[in-house]
Amino acid sequence: MTETVGSPAGASGEPEAGAREGIRVQRVYTTEGVHPYDEVKWERRDVVMTNWRDGSVNFEQRGVEFPDFWSLNAVNIVTSKYFRGAVGSDTRESSLRQLIDRVALTYVAAGVEHGYFATDADAEIFEHELTWMLLHQVFSFNSPVWFNVGTSSRQQVSACFILSVDDTMESILDWYKEEGLIFKGGSGAGLNLSRIRSSRELLSSGGTASGPVSFMRGADASAGTIKSGGATRRAAKMVVLDVDHPDIEEFIDTKAREEHKIRALRDAGFDMDLGGADSNSVQYQNANNSVRVSDEFMRAVESNGRFGLRARMTGDVLDTVQARDLFRKMAKAAWECADPGIQYDDTINDWHTSPETGRITASNPCSEYMHLDNSSCNLASLNLLKFLRDDLTFNAEVFEKAVEFVITAMDISICFADFPTEAIGDTTRKFRQLGIGYANLGALLMATGHAYDSDGGRALAAAITSLMTGTAYKRSAELAGVVGPYDGYARNAEAHRRVMRKHAAANDLVRTYHRNDASVHKLATKVWQEGLEIGARNGWRNAQASVLAPTGTIGLMMDCDTTGIEPDLALVKFKKLVGGGSMQIVNQTVPRALHALGYQEEQIEAIVEYIAENGHVVDAPGLRHEHYEVFDCAMGDRSIAPMGHVRMMAAVQSFISGAISKTVNMPESATVEEVEQLYFEGWKLGLKALAIYRDNCKVGQPLSAGRGDKGESEKAVEKQIEYRPVRKRLPKKRPSQTVSFTVGGAEGYLHAGSYPDDGLGEIFVKLGKQGSTLAGVMDAFSMSISVGLQYGIPLEFYVSKFQNLRFEPAGMTDDPDIRMASSVLDYLFRRLALDYLPYEKRAQLGVFTVDEREAQVNGTDVVPAEQSSDVDLDTMRSTVDYSKKFEQPKAEEQRVGSSTELLELRLGKAADAPLCMTCGTKMRPSGSCYLCEGCGSTSGCS
């Protein structure tokens, strides 16, 4: 919680002589006298990351220190991506404390130096609050902050850049150089090529100009070279061309024509898969292309009128085209290859806070940052699930205070930041563009029982987004009173105030449906009113405050289930295990959603088990049909309709300073007309940008063998493998345990014998008097289960079949972890699950200890210490051997290394996602970019 004190600063942004400026800071998360590090339990872990394809070790660092509640994946990614210093050296960071201190202390020191805090005590509280939020994964700065801040490197804090290019050869060559330097640093850039004269215009020498598309070829080759040089990120770039440029049709067809080439070469026998030996012959594949359309053009499309293409040098109309035909060409190209996307120029500039300085002509590669040419934006994102209370209401008050802390820190960073070019640094320091955003919206909506494509879901998303941006601008106005407004504010004051009023007016139009969104919206309304009043006095510190970025790597750092504004990818995901290995799990948001919808524990267990086996909720036992939509995802069965994605974007766009990084998924059966409709509705609904992807529209993608239709060659492969179960007998001496139990008054004993390498191999159950029928049946039952275990039947299969089985005796037990049992077999197999199955597998089956259930009630996910050690799933499950009649190199194709590959296996078709250059797994969509779950690499902003 913060407030400002002191009189307004001078126009330069420096405190006036004799004035004590600064913000007062109150504690929200921390306790006075207790450092945030002392409130958590720390543990040492080993990080070993391998290439999924060949098993080679990509990275290794042992003994790193993290809080015990951080997941394996988050630990791996932060250690490998963000720890600085040579691996193995004394200067290498080895603790999350060192990483957070390196960043947070740098920010606080800069804040003190530039007069942000009223007193030293306020600075200390700010440091503690910032540390606590980073430590507990409440938010994260974008990757460049973690890479660079507090190191000897240049203090670059921005992930998003916009360049500019003029119609001169010097400017074009500068474009190549500047773009290459940005790629080399692991970031991306976008620019508009519309100033370059068209191929229909003459040069001063009398010759004909090459046109922008020809220069795109050289830039694309440069990007491809830098990408293949071994960077941790693919080169990310955005190329924009105005719809009235005479070369617009050539630009639209550029990537579609290359897709035709790929198909022809593939059919001729060339290796055209992504990364294939012959794929380098394809051009223009390193950029996202977008057409910048005007309202004039869209109205011409609506009325089936004609539209003029204008010379770049004179502005004269060189040609007129039928607007609807040109629009159809755009939609057809996007239908064929997902490019070009569309950007709505007049909408973008209608929300521009600094139009007197220049128009917004382009965006960053992922389309969320849109502002002046030669500028940059640093990003930070909040984890929305961290603000969900136990009663499933959103804690708007704490969210407001968290936004105040984060936006203050982001503005401080511009005071010490370095930039790749002098022009970018000058513009960014003068306009101080920030990009606060969030992750986990899809998970939040599901956890609160909202369908992603629903009025209630959109209302909650709109209210949260409005509160976030309103709070950010309110804090920006308060900072303007302390350290001054941005340098370009005076010239753009009226325009900036007009945009603030537009945001506030849009907030007034939000319709609420539930106490959750109503309470958030009420606070947002109050914040906008206060912010307008403060801004009218002080101005604003920042020309831009918010964007919705993909949140790729930092989303994994915060253990987020969903990225940015995206819904969940699928209900079943791929998860790595400690010590190597992996498994598929049902999203942990699903049980929370079922609780929110009023289902009982036994019903939830049955539904989760069904999802684990089938990957969807259709026909799940006990799940009401009207609740199916809550579990709709981006891909798979019951995927969200394309317009559902567009409607969600429209619900939040008017509360975002910039734009939204998102790709709208369309089924393979979608038509060109449906693409046209999406692009047209995007304009009508007030979006700033829109991109689509139609399933399987690209052929240059690695294929996977799935459960769907298989080709004849794959069927032949399956017929050439003969599977034969092999019994793995227990040794003469083996570890065992005996458990006495009581179920409904009936007493018995469970004896369980294990393999020396810790896998259950036999059970014996004593129940009833010796020689009785019941005792004999239990002996026979025990023998059959034991033999089955030794022949490789997984224990989890038996647990899923026998738990919840009902017959007498049943009732109370003497086991504190299993207080009630519906039968003896229900008790026995739940007890075996607790003793022999890892936590992740038990979570699928709904079998938990009493401590774990208490943790769930308190809203935390706790993995017991005894279960956090290495688990050898191969020993426990894989006692089945096979012999091959023929050599078969494709036998490994069923292995999966990511959620995308798991989804491919279930759907039986390939997903449009590249392979990670670092670890070899298939990446997953993240906004308009891609993210690797294995190592955290991204293809764009994070």
Automatic annotation (TrEMBL):
The keyword Acetylation does not apply. CDD domains: RNR_II_dimer. It comes from the Bacteria. Residues 158-693 form the Ribonucleotide reductase large subunit C-terminal domain. Residues 47-137 form the Ribonucleotide reductase class II vitamin B12-dependent N-terminal domain. Residues 731-835 form the TSCPD domain. Pfam families: Ribonuc_red_2_N (PF08471), Ribonuc_red_lgC (PF02867), TSCPD (PF12637). Residues 1-16 have a biased composition (Low complexity). One of its GO terms (molecular function) is ribonucleoside-diphosphate reductase activity, thioredoxin disulfide as acceptor. One of its GO terms (biological process) is DNA biosynthetic process. Its EC number is 1.17.4.1. Keywords: Cobalamin, Cobalt, Disulfide bond, DNA synthesis, Nucleotide-binding, Oxidoreductase. Residues 1-22 are annotated as: Disordered. Coiled coil: none annotated. It catalyses: a 2'-deoxyribonucleoside 5'-diphosphate + [thioredoxin]-disulfide + H2O = a ribonucleoside 5'-diphosphate + [thioredoxin]-dithiol. Its cofactor is adenosylcob(III)alamin. Belongs to the ribonucleoside diphosphate reductase class-2 family. Catalyzes the reduction of ribonucleotides to deoxyribonucleotides. May function to provide a pool of deoxyribonucleotide precursors for DNA repair during oxygen limitation and/or for immediate growth after restoration of oxygen. This is Vitamin B12-dependent ribonucleotide reductase. It comes from Saccharopolyspora spinosa.
